[in-house]
Amino acid sequence: MTFDLILIGYGNVARRFVGLLEEQRAALAAQHGLSARVIGIVTRHGEAFAASGLDTARIRLKPPIGNTQSGRAAERPDTTQHTLAFLRDALHQCSDAAREQRLVVVETTTLDINRGEPAATYIRTALGRGAHVITTNKGPVACAYRSLLRTAEEADRRWLFEGTVMDGVPLFNMARETLRAVTIVGFRGVVNSTTNFMLTAMEQGQAFDDALREMQAMGIAEADVSLDVDGWDAAAKTAALANVLLDARLTPADVEREGISRGTRARAVKACEAGRRLKLVARASREGRRVTARVALEELAGDDLLAELEGQQNALILYTDLLDEIAIVQRGGGLTQTAYALLSDLLTIGKDATRFSAIRRSPRRARRG
Fold it and tell me: What span, in angstroms and rounded, lies between the C-alpha atoms of 92 and 321?
């Protein structure tokens, strides 16, 4: 089956995803009977569309109306409306692919910590017009999870977001597919790579600003670094995890939050000298119908699994009713791992669509069902 992809956002993650599709083309066809072609791209800097598929090696984005003569994208107040207009038109032109469940919108725009917009609107629009959606944007999961899930269910389409927490680690897929009779009652973890790297660096004497610049140079820190150091990124991930795993109704604003600062260095060094480690820990738990969540600096015993995390490493410990504690550790992360999460979600959709296609081709089986 060949999937048609429309990309909203074409930054580092989306570009790496497109690269992965090409690198894995033969394996995807042989092992999964799946191929994919990019037919549309829209960003605030430009757009491109070809129903027969774009040449991703030579993509030329057409500048949006209102650009300067120099070709630099103008900052326009109606960027969202421009994107929505492009998306609606592209979805209309791909109605056959949507009907056959092989149209996928890939949403990788930047995080909005307050409402998850305009990403949530893009996702809702795509689902409502017959497309599946995969995203690495944690904002919609943290701010509008229930409404978007309801939209996906009503449209009978998939909305998947494996890349929103811990890059490509199949966390949500594990909970959805392999822990079906297990109830998750809480979790704790280190989920922000930038702050964990900085805490490790400051323990070793590096200055706060130098450690942050290193994360920026590597492309790991958020474009708005305050989202990392003030704990907002971790709070958004905590809300997303709680909403999906604990059936909560949280937003990032509902998560008690603490970040790190230049003054954190002395505290990190002191903890390390005492055989302990200072970590920015995300926690959530359910008691009855109430879910509480927080992100805060904690001094952990040296033999705590989270204390052993170095640099950009992340980990999450799930507390369950039947399996006690389940720990998931991510030893390394980056663009490839996040892009892989999109590929993994596409394969999940591919499995569903293949099943749908087989049933549709077998009227006798459908009548018996």
Answer: 46
C-alpha dihedral (110, 115, 117, 120), degrees to nearest 10: 110
Measured in whole angstroms, the distance separating CA 347 from the mean position of its chain's CA atoms is 16
Residue pair 33/351 in contact (Cβ under 8 Å)? The answer is: no
Per the listing, tokens 């949500």 go with 172
- Each residue of 267-323: pLDDT tens digit? 999 999 999 999 999 999 999 889 999 999 999 999 999 999 999 999 999 999 999
Beta strands in the chain (DSSP E): 2-8, 35-43, 46-49, 103-107, 132-135, 159-160, 184-190, 256-257, 276-287, 290-301, 314-320, 325-330
Q: Give the pairing type, strands 35-43 and 2-8.
A: parallel
Q: Which residues contact 30 (CB under 8 A, 6 or more apart)?
A: none
Torsion of CA 197, 201, 207, 209, to 10 degrees: -20
CB neighbours of residue 7 within 10 Å: 26
Q: How far apart are CA 173 and CA 347, in angstroms?
A: 12
Q: Which two tokens stand for residue 216?
A: 């920026």
Contact 111, 227 (CB under 8 A): yes
Q: How far apart are CA 106 and CA 123, in angstroms?
A: 9
Instruction: Select from 37, 41, 31, 29 the least CA-distant residue to 3.
Output: 37
Pairwise CA distance, residues 239 & 117, whole Å: 16
Burial class (CB in 10 A: 0-12, 13-18, 19+), 199: buried
Note the pTM of the prediction, 2 decimals.
Answer: 0.89
Give the C-alpha separation, 151 to 123, whole Å.
Answer: 9
Convert the pLDDT of each residue in 231-259 to its tens digit. Answer: 999 999 999 999 999 999 999 999 999 99
Domains of the chain: 2-167+336-368 (3.40.50.720), 175-332 (3.30.360.10)
pLDDT in tens, 252-270: 999 999 999 999 999 999 9
